[in-house]
Amino acid sequence: GAVVSQHPSRVICKSGTSVKIECRSLDFQATTMFWYRQFPKQSLMLMATSNEGSKATYEQGVEKDKFLINHASLTLSTLTVTSAHPEDSSFYICSARVQRDTQYFGPGTRLTVL
Amino acid sequence: AQSVTQPDIHITVSEGASLELRCNYSYGATPYLFWYVQSPGQGLQLLLKYFSGDTLVQGIKGFEAEFKRSQSSFNLRKPSVHWSDAAEYFCAVGADYGGSQGNLIFGKGTKLSVKP
Fold it and tell me: pLDDT by residue (tens digit) across A36-48?
């Protein structure tokens, strides 16, 4: 099956710093990738849709200036959490759409902001 | 608006027993339906999906699900549960097709515990 990787798997940072999370499709090309956020014992909430070569589409309530998304190639999308604060601590999961809206998910990145 | 409901937050079954996880959806057209499994601290793994055709779909790890349009349901089943099946299970519906992004809307999940 299609494999999606995320790096790093865990990151701890100080409040006010920025953190970049990478999402890669390893054995296929993905024109569309998605970024989700998952709070403890909660479901996944879509943050934004990342399209290769164009601006990301953000869901209502998600600050585009805080969560910067770049999809520079067909195999890589990055999410940068700028000026991170403790409330940004969460589990961030990316996915890549293969076909007919089947998405393959990365293993997630646990962000802790001190 | 599209929505997914998983009525059971937590289910505990004995190893070897059968399992059924419930999922109901709200969607105006024929939905694309998915079941994913998430182990602690991990991403989601696709178990199975329904797009069209046979309403009983087979997935990985011995799981199956049945699409019932009249009940707006897509329940996940397994005849004999293994201890390794303990995880969180998410039902999802694909939303906004026809040129849109095709993002998924997830239910809140059902946590499955397996007793020895």
Answer: 999 887 888 899 9
